[in-house]
Write a structure and sequence with these properties.
This protein has about 375 residues and is an alpha/beta fold. It is about 45% helix and about 15% strand. It has 14 helices and 9 strands. A 9-stranded mixed beta sheet has the order 6-5-4-3-2-1-7-8-9, with helices on both faces. α10 crosses α13 and α10 crosses α14. The structure holds iron/sulfur cluster.
């Protein structure tokens, strides 16, 4: 109920802010790339090259003290997404999450991992679980090891031999923690790229058979954040449509057995797939994008972006230049310029995290979500 009271008024204001009728309120979804350090050598992302080529840049990442100053100015966030690089390479990851829970009071904290250093992940996850259990038991923590293929094929996409075995090992260890931490959700996630699109049904079945709490996938796309703008990584729309048809059939088959919360997330996913395929085929924003209003992205250096796709190309500013005051940056002219660019339909992409907010804020799409939930109940 507390979350509803916090989130609902914001949802009512966002469409007005989108039209420039009221100032933008604070976002409900923050993605924080805590570090750009990464041990992977993925074919779909070149973040891992950054500190090899520019080792000095690592020192420019935000300190814990700076992060606290920023969080103090942000207010309530419902979804706190951690991103990277490999988030568990930050030795203060537990402290960052504790600060987020203290100041941003999220309902959901989400962390992906490449699972290349499973012992390190387990060492750093334990204090996080302890903090959440003792101080913030209502917070749902989701951890998502990345699984892009099966066996050696996964290792080839990720560029690290032995990674597949580690993903499976870490996934099983994390699942064993669930007995003590009921609010821990262990997921698996696949980036759909031209290196796995033709086997995506097999990969998905494999992941689903491992009984993850959730299996997510997202299409590999060009993102300024990933330094992959010139790389050929995205499957063509016809291939993606085929993959989507498989996911849709699978979700519909599963939905009835799911509890209400999962049915809701599955219904959102069904509508997301329809939207994503249209965005790819028609190459335009199909419904209004609320990036820079409902969602914000913070880089390891304190830049604020509307989304990671626009990223470095369209930064709203750096918090170090705004005295670490998020509200001031968010209300500034640079930030508004980016919002005008987005609402002018000058960009498009199927970024899942953003698309879910967009669906929530688009009444016809939301009505389709509700219809899917009702349909599943009546089957
Ligand atoms: S449409 Fe995509 S690129 Fe454009 S602002 Fe939204 S999330 Fe970013």
């Amino acid at each position: 109920m507390g979350y509803f009271r916090e989130v609902f008024p914001k949802l009512l204001c966002y469409p007005l802010a989108y039209r420039g009728l009221v100032p933008p309120g604070m976002p409900i979804n923050l993605t924080f790339s805590v570090t750009n350090l990464c041990q992977s050598k993925c074919k779909t992302c070149s973040i891992w090259r950054l500190y090899r080529e520019h080792p000095d840049k690592l020192k420019a990442e935000l300190s814990l003290d700076e992060i606290e100053r920023i969080f103090m100015t942000m207010g309530h966030i419902y979804v706190f997404n951690i991103s990277g690089g490999e988030p568990f390479l930050r030795n203060d990851i537990a402290e960052i999450i504790a600060l987020a829970c203290k100041y941003l009071t999220p309902g959901i904290v989400h962390i992906p991992t490449n699972a290349i250093s499973p012992r390190l992940v387990l060492k750093r996850i334990r204090p996080i679980l302890k903090i959440l259990k003792t101080k913030y038991p209502h917070v749902r923590l989701t951890i998502k090891p990345s699984l892009d293929h099966i066996g050696d094929s996964h290792d080839k996409i990720r560029g690290v031999k032995g990674n597949f075995e580690k993903v499976i090992g870490l996934f099983n260890r994390l699942k064993a923690y669930k007995a003590d931490y009921p609010n821990l959700h262990v997921e698996l996630g696949t980036v759909i790229s031209r290196w796995n699109i033709t086997e995506i049904a097999e990969i998905s079945e494999f992941a689903i058979d491992l009984s993850a709490d959730s299996y997510r996938n997202e299409i590999a796309e060009h993102r300024s954040e990933m330094f992959n703008m010139d790389d050929s990584i995205t499957p063509n729309p016809a291939e993606y449509r085929q993959a989507v048809e498989f996911f849709v059939a699978r979700i519909k088959r599963d939905m009835k057995e799911r509890v209400l919360f999962e049915r809701i997330t599955h219904a959102f996913r069904l509508i997301y797939y329809q939207l994503a395929i249209r965005i790819m085929e028609e190459r335009r924003q199909i419904i209004p994008c609320y990036a820079g209003i409902s969602n914000a992205h913070m880089t390891p250096y304190g830049d604020i972006w509307a989304c990671c796709t626009l990223g470095y190309e369209k930064s709203m500013g750096n918090l170090r230049d705004f005295g670490y005051d998020f509200k001031r940056l968010w209300a500034g002219a640079e930030a508004q310029e980016i919002r005008d660019f987005i609402s002018g339909g000058n960009c498009f992409c199927p970024l899942a995290n953003q698309a879910y907010s967009n669906i929530l804020l688009h009444p016809p799409s939301l009505a389709c979500v509700v219809k899917e939930i009702v349909k599943a109940r009546d089957k």
